[in-house]
Amino acid sequence: MSETEILQRRVEREQKARKLAEKILEEKAQELYLANNSLRVLNENLELKISERTADLTAEQMRLRALITNLDSGILLEDERRHIVLVNQLFCDLFHIPAPPPFLIGADCTNSAEQSKSLFADPEGFVQRINEILACRELVQNESLHLASGQIYQRTFIPLFDGQRYLGHLWKYNDISEAVRAGEELRRSEDKYRGIIENMELGLMEVDNHGRIVRPYPRFCQMVGYEPSELEGQDAVEILLPPEYVEVLEQQTEDRMEGKAGVYEIQLRKKDGNLIWALISGAPIVDLSGDIIGSIGIHYDITRQKLLQQELEEARKRAEAAQEAEKQFLANMSHEIRTPLNAIIGMAHLLADTNPTEEQTEYLGILKSSAEMLRILISDVLDLSKIRAGKMETQAKDFDLPDLIRSMVKSLQLRMEDKPIQVSVEIDPQITNMVTGDDLLLHQIMANLLGNAEKFTASGAIKVQVKMETEPNVQPMWIKICVSDTGIGIPPEKHDLIFQSFRQVDGDTKRKFGGTGLGLAITKQLVDLQGGTIELDSDIGKGARFTVRLPYIDSGVRPVSDRLKESQQSLHTHGKRILVVEDNFMNRKYIGTLLRKWNVEHEFAHNGLEAVEKADVWAYDLILMDIQMPEMDGYEATIAIRAQEGPNQNTPILALTASAMMSQKDKAYSAGMDDYLSKPFKPSQLFEKMAYYMGSGESSNAAHIPETFTFDARLDRQMLYALYGDDLEYAYEMFSMFFQTAAVEFKDLRPKVEAENWTELSRLAHKLKPSFGMVGLCTLEKLMDRIETDAKGQPNKETLQEDLLQAEQSFEEGSRIVQSDLHRIAGILKK
Amino acid sequence: VKGIVFTSFLDLVEEKFGYEMVDRIILSCELPSKGAYTSIGTYPHSEMVQLVTALSKETETPVSDLLKVYGNYFFPVLSNGYPHFISEAKSALDLLESIEHHIHVEVIKLYPDAELPRFDTKRIDTHTLEMIYHSKRKMADFAEGLIRSTFEHYNEQVQMERENIVDDGSVVRFLIRKV
């Protein structure tokens, strides 16, 4: 192998290697170029991003810079070497730096405190404090700085750290002179008003939310007798409030916390222990941020007013007591005067029956008329006081209005017989039924009007007209009553006057005609009381016409024939006994004489207790019962008699009352009395009542007079009168039939209940119901109705048994009464 | 295998035995590259094995010795050619420690297709380093030559123990102590 060949192979190898290397290099160059290209693009993108970021940062920085520059505070931002990074115009203004802020950036502040210290009231203090702050590198907020010029700055120092690294700090200065001045002015203004309030004797006190006294004002301190220092910081409730007002104050405090103001009255305890009354107006105190930080109370000492108020209250109570005493006095007077008056009138009547001489008769006449006048006078005064006290009440009952008017007119006619006065009456024939209303009040009205006409009419006519103003069947029915006379008349200008109390047309009238001047006033009030009206049509010399309009209810019931008048002549007393219960000797004598005159057997009891004892032993046909008596009064005695199963349990009891108060009448009825007679009464009044309650009995000398019959009081009289009127034969027939049918069938009820045969029970009760009504046993009628209804619906055996038991008891008693009445009717019919 | 390994190897052969020996071993082998190597090219490992084996036959010297000598010869090639790779290491042990996580990382950046051995290192103490060689090429001898020349480069003395962790020589532990 030659050297040449080796060399040739070497060259070939090297050429080949070089070409390969060139090829690789070319490829690498290509790669490099491409890589370079992509690098460039990458770089460009990067640059774009950086410039974008830079722009953002610059904008952000601008914004922050603008913000700081325009802040409403002087701002100085220094770096860690105390070179200025940022400062705003306001800062330059505050520190009187003439250079514009941009020029100051980068300036060294090391010496700045020294340069501006002359602005401050305490220059060395200013510098010293700046150095302190810088040394501490801690946040300092809102320090106040007083300037030599009197201005006040507020300073805040904010150190800036990046982690542990100190970056610099920020100074913030504000001129707060205005705010401080405004605050002071406000305080001065508040003080001014507080001063005014204090001068107005209003004590102010401020407490915090825990009730601690924050600020007691001088006037308040005077009020409660403490020094301000003794009150400050104290618990207001503890030191000033009596325990009974703690609750009141707690409520007020609650209101305050809700922002509500309030006014209240409480007592406060002074330092010396005395109590004062205070009127307090409390309001919440609100700070600048709107939070309630306490409350302020304005105290007004009302102790004197309170005392006055208490005195007034006592005075009022005394006055009321006096008024009450006056009423009591009137009621007593009623009793005290009427009782002897009753005796006087009675005795006068009795004397008249003793064949007096002509002279004595004349005197008796004067005595009677004077006593009568006195009675009227007292009645008037009492009526008026009753009306004024609101004690006069209306009481509705059925009565025969035409009859009432007629009888009153008739009585007037009798009185006028010997005078040249014609008395007439016209009554609307349409008024056929009894009316429901207050007959007593109408009686009084008519008595007054007729009395008035009688008094002022010397000659001519007195005319009464009664007219129904509404159509029949209209409720209420209005009835017009005119009373006209041909008397002296009343001038129109006095028309209003005469309806007033104690007023008459003139003094002359009073002298000439007498009277209390109360009659017409009472009349008007009685008319008003019933919802009616009264009018006057009159003139001097032309007479007078009074027109009264009153509302009544049509009762739908026809009046029975005039029993009272009939009975007046048919009082037959043979075998009848009356118990007179009366504690007053004069009255006993009066009544006793009358009864002897009428041949009525009677005995006396001197008080309620005695009456009860007698009633327990003897049977009476009527008891006359005084009310006000020693030992036991009339009410109690009546209750006792009604309660004991003696012979007089059902005997009619007639109350003799001295007081005309409606409440006493009510009391009489509820005690179990049947009727009343108001003292003083005339013999005829007593006679009428006796005739009504005792009936005629077995008359020996009056058989020719048509008999009337009074049903037993325990039966439904009104219904029985409505059914039978005076037709006793019809009543007899019905009563007899009751015993033949209903009384027998009633016994069939019990087996039906026991057998629970409800249908039959209901049917039978239905059938029996009207039979009981026909004999006036309304309780049984109602019970039958109940049994019928219950048996028809959802029957309950127990309930029905109870009802039946009640019905049986009622039946036993009721049938006895009906039996007795049937016998009495039979007795009458026999004649 | 990077071309520089071949060109340096042939340079060493020419230097020691003359180009005739180079020509001889190239001709005795079946080389796809026909023995035309450029330092920036990349060639199959099998060519290197053939060349070393051929030289071993021609010179009657064991392959392991040849590789150790070649490793010794190759270090200056690297240190002169790529001085910035080793400039930061202040001592031989520093350099050895930095091979896996610094030098090889940079080599891969330059030659993404380079196939490099892996070295796991552990400092036993200040002067002792355990170094474990992993490579399917099984050229721990070449590595040993390089390690020794590293110490020469820093003028340091070294004591070295070597043991196969895997018998075929693919994983080898060096315990290197600076003396």
Q: Give the strand content of chain B.
A: 15-25%
| Terminal residue distance of chain B | 34 Å
How many individual β-strands of chain A?
Answer: 22
Rounded to the nearest angstrom, the radius of gyration of chain A is 57 Å
- Through-space gap between termini of chain A: 201 Å
Give the tally of β-strands of chain B: 4
What gross morphology of chain A would you assign? elongated
Shape assignment of chain B = globular
Q: Quickly count the helices of chain B.
A: 7
The largest chain-to-chain contact, stated as pair and per-chain residue counts, equals: A-B, 16 and 14 residues
What level of helicity do the residues of chain A show?
A: 40-55%
Binned strand content of chain A: 15-25%
* Helical/strand content category of chain B: alpha+beta
The Cα radius of gyration of chain B reads: 16 Å
What summary fits the major beta sheet of chain B?
A: 4 strands, antiparallel
Poorly predicted regions of chain B are none
Description:
The complex is a heterodimer of chains A (831) and B (179). Chain A is an alpha+beta fold and 831 residues long. Chain A is built from 29 helices and 22 strands. In chain A, helix 14 (439-456) runs antiparallel to helix 16, helix 19 packs parallel to helix 20 and helix 27 (758-774) runs antiparallel to helix 28. Chain B has helices at residues 3-17, 19-28, 45-59, 63-81, 83-86, 92-110, 140-153, and strands spanning 118-125, 128-134, 158-164, 171-178. In chain B, strand 3 (158-164) and strand 4 (171-178) form a beta hairpin. The longest helix of chain B is centred in the middle third of the chain and has 19 residues, at 63-81. Chain B is globular, with a radius of gyration of 16 Å. The model of chain B has no long low-confidence stretch (mean pLDDT 90).
